[in-house]
Design a protein that fits this description.
- This protein is 64% helix and 2% strand.
- It has 20 helices and four strands.
- It has a two-stranded antiparallel sheet. A two-stranded antiparallel sheet has the order 3-4.
- Helix 9 packs antiparallel against helix 10.
- The chain is globular.
């Protein structure tokens, strides 16, 4: 019996490829379950920022959900991103809170400081304006021009400054600010929380949804350990209503001192632009790979850098108006999408809707606010250190030549002025006053960014010799 020729061989069966692309709408059951996973993934970090900065947890959740939905609509549902609270803004927000709401912010019993929130709101709205303008500019002239003004040595060094500048706040919550009689218990809980969170983040990698929740799991363990130490009180949870209106606040546009601090907040977007762009590139690779497996055209969302930043700005505009924490698109949610092969914007909008609903859940907000400072401190040591290390990773990944005196100079002055200024100067302010904008002096992190951009501009105008790395 003769063998079949190639032309006579049966056509291969194409295996069924599971996954959802950005413009797909899953069945209701899948949409709800996948949406809840997205909500659960963003929840720990988003509420932790609210706790650290004493923003209202309820309005932060609501603004996160609404901001995500608006950003998805602005991007015409082409870019699947979920927006949660950004850690990059914490240092400058703490500066604002310490200046405009010092009594509230330093009182451990207080969980919400509206006087400071109203000032920060102006800054978040100004951030939105910057992001939208930069996004529109990139759409017109391309990203290469922006990279000349904000090269990786600036953005990476700024990330390092932001992370290290937060060390004082992390150690303060961990035990340095605790009353002497509970200091030992506070430090113990903080370091137990820190160690278990690190172990979860390392050993649960690749373990599905659990692998995406090391912060939540670490917080739960730390919280459980804190209870027998007497660091948790449930009185406010018992008294809280099941339904409670989140604490909306109006931006303090009429405060003449708000604008200098607003500019300080807004300039932090310098460090978030490369993070957002990196997330876009990562998502583009995974989406196009899935599209190829499904026999569909590539989406090429990596070409939408400008539109992505406009969407970032749309999210910040929403959270700034409502009084939520400054936002960013979340890498952990992106990773969850890669694991579940779900990039449906309909699912992300469902997750946003869930965040809005939970923002009105009074007992959940009250329970979140019982999180002891020790647990927050333990989580913060890890998270703030990661922010700084991500700056190092950015400089490495972009192959910045640190044998070049120009690059060394820019990075050096940003690190010393940003970190040293924050630690050594009174209130973390350089004594250069600018009427209306910085009447009390320029915050160290902002001064470092301005100085780095200025020196880089000098090198762009007056060409210096190029130096090859060893």
């Amino acid at each position: 019996m003769s063998k079949k020729t190639a032309s006579q061989a049966p056509a291969p069966r194409h295996r069924k490829v599971f996954g959802f692309l950005p413009d797909d709408t899953p069945p209701v059951g899948a949409m709800l379950s996948l949406g809840f996973q997205q909500f659960l993934t963003m929840f720990p970090a988003t509420v932790l920022v609210a706790i650290l900065t004493k923003f209202d947890v309820g309005i932060t959740l609501l603004a996160s959900g609404l901001g995500t939905i608006v950003a998805l609509l602005v991007s015409k549902r082409k870019i699947p991103m979920y927006y949660g609270s950004s850690f990059s803004y914490i240092a400058v927000i703490i500066t604002v809170m310490s200046k405009f709401a010092p009594a509230c912010f330093k009182d451990p019993a207080q969980v919400y400081c509206p006087e400071g929130v109203q000032i920060v709101q102006v800054g978040i709205i100004l951030t939105a304006v910057f992001e939208i303008l930069v996004g529109l500019l990139i759409m017109r002239i391309g990203k290469a021009a922006l990279d000349r003004i904000l090269p990786p040595i600036i953005t990476g060094s700024m990330a390092m400054v932001i992370g290290v500048a937060l060390a004082g706040a992390a150690l303060g919550n961990a035990g340095n600010w605790a009353k002497p009689e509970i200091a030992t218990a506070t430090w113990s809980v903080a370091f137990i929380t820190l160690i278990v969170t690190i172990l979860f983040s390392v050993y649960l990698q690749g373990k599905g949804l659990l692998g995406m929740l090391p912060i939540l799991l670490g917080a739960i363990v730390g919280y459980g350990v804190a209870i027998p130490f007497g660091l948790v009180s449930f009185a406010n949870v018992t008294n809280a209503a099941w339904f409670e209106l989140p604490k909306f606040t109006m931006p303090a546009f009429g405060n003449p001192e708000a604008w200098g601090m607003a500019l300080s907040v807004a300039l932090i977007f310098i460090a978030t632009v490369p993070e957002s762009t990196a997330h876009l590139y990562q998502m583009s690779l995974y989406i196009d790979e899935l599209a190829a497996e499904m026999g569909r055209k590539p989406y090429n969302i990596k070409e939408l850098i400008g539109l992505n930043l406009v969407a970032d700005g749309a999210d910040d505009l929403v959270v700034g108006v409502l009084g939520g924490c400054a936002g960013t698109n979340y890498g952990e949610n992106n990773s969850l999408m890669a694991i579940t092969r779900n990039y449906s914007t309909a699912v992300l909008m469902t997750a946003g809707g869930m965040a809005i609903v939970f923002g009105f859940f009074g007992k959940l907000v009250a329970l979140v606010n019982t999180m002891p400072a020790a647990v927050v401190g333990g989580l913060s040591i890890y998270l703030f250190g990661v922010i700084g290390m991500q700056g190092v990773a950015l400089i490495q990944s972009e192959k910045v030549n640190l044998f070049d005196p120009k690059q060394l100079a820019i990075g050096a002055i940003i690190l010393v002025c940003g970190i040293g200024g924050n630690l050594a100067l009174k209130d973390g302010l350089f004594p250069f006053t600018v009427p209306y904008l910085f009447p009390s002096g320029i915050p160290a992190i902002v001064f470092a960014a301005i100085l780095g951009i200025l020196v880089n501009t000098i090198f762009l105008i007056f060409k210096a010799p190029e130096v090859r790395g060893a």
